[in-house]
Amino acid sequence: MKTVILAVAIRILIPIFIIFSVYTLFRGHNHPGGGFIGGLIGAIAFVFHTMTHGPQQTVDTFLKINLYGYPRQPNQSRSLYLMRMMRVNVWRRRKMAYHPEIKERMIRVEPIYIIATGLLLAAGSGVVGLVFGQPFMHAYWADFYIPIIGKPGTPILFDIGVYLLVIGVVLKITFVMSEE
């Protein structure tokens, strides 16, 4: 279903959904919300984009990362090579991307990798308590305060893991159902 009105509306609504989902994610450990609800709100943006533009366009827009880099020289140290790669990909990306020596590599982020990362973060936040001799999922908080987020700790890591897990599962389901 591709209409001009829906395509323009989705282009405007996607950033709003993403911002609201991140807000709900970080608001969650003191008020209603958290990783699950934030992940569902964020996934709505991808579902709408897939409904409007199709799964391939959604993958091309959101789940492909372009990396640029020089070919590694045989006598070049690893740290110097990584610094040159960082300079190309972060600081001077547009200017350096058209240099004849620079090669482009495209990486596709699969939804299963998003699911695995979320599961690793959620389970890893619980293991921290076991490492320090406490029960599984025991909360540890940092001593400093971040203005928007609050005091970071293991519960926010758990929420971020659930957020990524929900977005990955909804993306996978959406892509599988839209291809049929």
Number of helices: 7
Biggest sheet statistics: 2 strands, antiparallel
Please indicate the percent range of residues in DSSP E strands (runs of 2 or more): 5-15%
- SS class: mainly alpha
Q: How are strands sequenced across the largest beta sheet?
A: 1-2
Query: What is the string of helix and strand elements?
Result: HHHEHHEHH
Could you list some keywords that capture this structure?
single chain, 180 residues, mainly alpha, two-stranded antiparallel ribbon, 2 strands
Secondary structure blueprint with pairings:
Elements: H1 4-27, H2 35-53, H3 55-62, E1 64-69, H4 78-91, H5 93-96, E2 103-108, H6 111-131, H7 154-179
Antiparallel strand pairs: 1-2
Helix pairs in contact: 1-2, 2-3, 2-7, 6-7
